[in-house]
Amino acid sequence: MTLRDLAEFPLALPGINTTLRQLLDIYCSRQGLSYHSVLDSDNLDTLAQFAVTGSAVTFGGELFVRHHLSAGKLIALNVPELKENDRSIEIQALASRHVSPVTEQFIDYIREAIVPPLR
């Protein structure tokens, strides 16, 4: 499904200061597309819950909706136009600083949670 197709649906979108929203706005501007956002929120769970009701389509990473996907409450569609702007997650720490065991556990948790990515 293309972004042009999705623009025809009511959308629940992340706030205007998020990179996902900025990518969406840039692409739509370049393609002369307009969309109708029925809900703007910086809370990803709010967007997912709203999409579960069937009131709108939302955009987000698989990590945040994995439980809805596995429960069959949502489906994931790849949007080719947004795939061109793949983003990545980096975990950074000072080279000279020792990372605590709790931080190491968190890093391990994040690594396991994001692999394999939705493609």
How do you describe this structure in short?
The chain has 119 residues and is mostly helical.
Properties at a glance:
mainly alpha, LysR_subst-bd, 6 helices, globular, 119 residues, Pca operon transcription factor PcaQ, single chain, D-Maltodextrin-Binding Protein, domain 2, HTH-type_LysR_regulators
How would you describe this protein?
- The chain has 119 residues and is mainly α.
- It has a single domain (3-89), classed as D-Maltodextrin-Binding Protein, domain 2 (3-Layer(aba) Sandwich), CATH 3.40.190.
- The chain is built from six helices and three strands; from the N terminus they run H-E-H-E-H-E-H-H-H.
- It has helices at 3-6, 19-31, 44-52, 62-70, 80-83, 101-114, and strands at 10-14, 36-41, 57-58.
- The longest helix is centred in the last third of the chain and has 14 residues, at 101-114.
- The radius of gyration is 17 Å and the shape is globular.
- Residues 2-113 form the LysR substrate-binding domain.
- One of its GO terms (cellular component) is cytosol.
- This is Pca operon transcription factor PcaQ.
